[in-house]
Every structure is written in structure tokens, then in C-alpha cells.
Amino acid sequence: MQLGETLKAHIVQWLKTNNWEYSEWAYALIVAGIFLVTALVLHFLLHSVILRWFKRSAHKSQIPWSLALYQHKLLSRIALVFQGFVFLVQARIWLPKDSDIFSLVSTVAHLWILFYLLLSLFSLLNFLEDIFRPASQKRNLPIRGIFQSVKLIAALIAIIFSLSLLIGKSPVLLFSGLGAMTAVLLLVFKDTILGFVAGIQLSANEMLAVGDWLEMPKFGADGEVIDISLTTVKVRNWDNTITTIPAYALISDSFKNWRGMTESGGRRIKRAIHIDATSVTFLQPEDIKRLRRAALLSDYIERKLTEIEIENNQTKIDLSSPVNGRRLTNLGTFRAYLRMYLKQHKSIHPNMSQIVRQLAPDANGIPLEIYAFSNDTGWANYEAIQADIFDHIFAIVPEFGLRVYQAPSGYDMQNMGARTDT
């Protein structure tokens, strides 16, 4: 005799002893009461006693893994899976297996267990992601994308098993039908598949990692990468807006990763000032005498004067005409000063390129470009270093008899008109 039939016989005997008439409804109400009481007691013990004790212990110990375990609700979902198993065991004990009520309760219990097993797996993967995230970022592993792929596959398997329970067919039949649905699945999950492949390529080639500075004008992205998921990459722009980029777009399109600049320890300064071409001239003796007092120029001037004198004496050319022989110019001396200034500047990287070059003249004058690298890659510090350098350059230009070109403004026109009237 089955255990359920034995228990049913005891309930019938108990009803007769208390002079109550037995019926299927009375039996069903008693079984439902047993189910309810058992469920309430078990839920109270698991969630209000055991899990609450674990919560207090986790907060008291402040151990990262125990806090993560609690935050992702892994234990509470495992407890709900256990409750589903208890419910299923009760159904097999109290209900006849050939009854419709048993079939309904068994299906609900199986769906309950399957659902919370899936959620428990999600919680476990989230927990593992939190634990292994620091190591994965150092090794540039796409751990988030891998876990999301596992979640997707697990969800598909859970859906297939759920459908098999509801329609009463073997899941093997549903799995065999996936072959015919492959084209549809590829179309539906196109972005997911492309994103997964792109994530592997980005990781394998070390093209992008969380924390990198990404610039991709096509998508309006210019900021720090804060998340790389299975299908998207999130970028926090410098104005604190968030840009979401499809992962596969980073493979099909070009983007700029500033990680190399950060790792090199130097950030490029590339900016030009425009010199008024009419202010360029040869240095006069009084100019040379004044500039000799500059600590950065004294050696250069002495060396150049000696070099020029030797060459002019060798050629025996008539120096009474300015067009004959070699002479020092204010622009060339200014370039030499800027080279020495950058060389001794404490915020300029000494092991990277330092160039002061003259570009092709245009309608705005003669561009004199500073090309160097600061030894601080932080944005605010870099801008401060660059501004300090050009503050000094603009202030020192008149000492060489040069003028910075600036298009006439309304104020200039007004002053010109006032002088004309006078």
C-alpha cells in the first residue's frame, strides 16, 4: 500500500472517530491545510530565522564575499527552491498520483523549482562576477559577456523545459525542433551573437577594457568606459551623459582608445601661436646685448655669434648691406629660447619629443607650433600645464621685438577712427 493511501486511511479513520462525514472535499481541505501550515513554518524558519541570522553575520563581519552573497539574494532563492522540493514531496505523499489535482500541483511545483533554479543560477553568476571582476579587469577578460552568455543559454533551456511540462511532451522533442528554428533564432539573437563575438575579439586583441578613455564621434562617445556587456558598451562622457554603443560596432567601425597615452605617462601638447610677419627682423646690437642677460639664451647667443662670425669671415662678404652674410633674427632666437624653455620645464616629459617648429605662413601670420608632452596625463593638470606654458609665451613675445597676430576687432576699429578724427 502506498504512503499516500495509508495516510488517507488514517485521516478517514480520524474523521469517523470525531463523527464527521468523510468526503473528497473534506480530505482536500485537510491536505490543503497541511500544505499551508508546512509552507508557512518552513518559510518562517528559512527566511526569518536562518537567512536573517546570516544577514546579521555578513554585515557584522564585513567580508566582501559574504556581503555579495547576501546582496545578490543567492541564499534566499536557494531556500525557495528547497521549499518547492518540499511542496512536491508533500504532493507525492498526500495526493494520489493518478488524480488531476496531483498532476496540477506537480506541474506548478516543477515550474516553481525550475524558475527559482534559474534565478539562483543568475544570482550565482552575479556573485562570481563581483568576486572575479578585479582579476578579470587586470587580465582584460570579458567575464561579464561570458556570464551573460551563460544566462542566455540557461534561460533558453529553462523555457524549453517549462514548455515541455505545460504541454506534457518530452523536452527531447523540443530540442530536436530547434534545428528548424535556427534561422529564426539567428535573426532574433543577431545582436547578441554579434556582441558576443565582438566581446571575445575586443578581449583577445586587448582593444578595450573598463576604465579606458574611448572616443568615437560617430556615436557621440567621448569619455570613460564604465561597462562592457554581452551586446553593448557604456561610456560615461566627460559631461556625465551616458552613451551606449553596440559591441559589434567597435569591431566594424574605428574608434580611438586613449589608454596608450595614459600608460605612456605623457600627454601631447600641440598648439601654435601666430607671429605677425611684419615684426620679424634682424637683431640689432642693443637687442643682442639685452637678450644675452637671459639665462636660457646666453650660451646660444655666444655660440651662434661665434659661428656666424667665422662663416662671414671665411666668405669675406660685404656686411654693410643687410642682405649679405648671416645674422641673428628675432624669430630664430625666439625659437631657440622656446626650445630651451621646454627642455628645462619641470612639467614637460624629458624622454618624449620636444619640438618648436615653424609652419607655413598664411593669412594669420607665421604659425610657431609647440610640440611636446606633459608628464601629467590628468585632464585638469594637463590643461593647467599647457595654459602656464602659453601664458609665459604670450608674455615674453614682445621681449624679442615680435608681435602676436590678431585680427582687428571692433575695439581696434573704434580707436583707429578716433585717431583719424583727431
TrEMBL record:
Keywords: Membrane, Transmembrane, Transmembrane helix
Domain of life: Bacteria
Keyword hit for Metal-binding: no
Domain Mechanosensitive ion channel MscS: residue ranges: 191-259
InterPro entries in the record: LSM_dom_sf (IPR010920), MscS_beta-dom_sf (IPR023408), MscS_channel_2nd (IPR006685), YbdG (IPR030192)
Transmembrane segments: 25-54, 74-95, 101-128, 149-167, 173-189
Subcellular location per the Swiss-Prot or TrEMBL entry: Membrane
Primary localisation category: membrane
Protein name in the entry: Miniconductance mechanosensitive channel
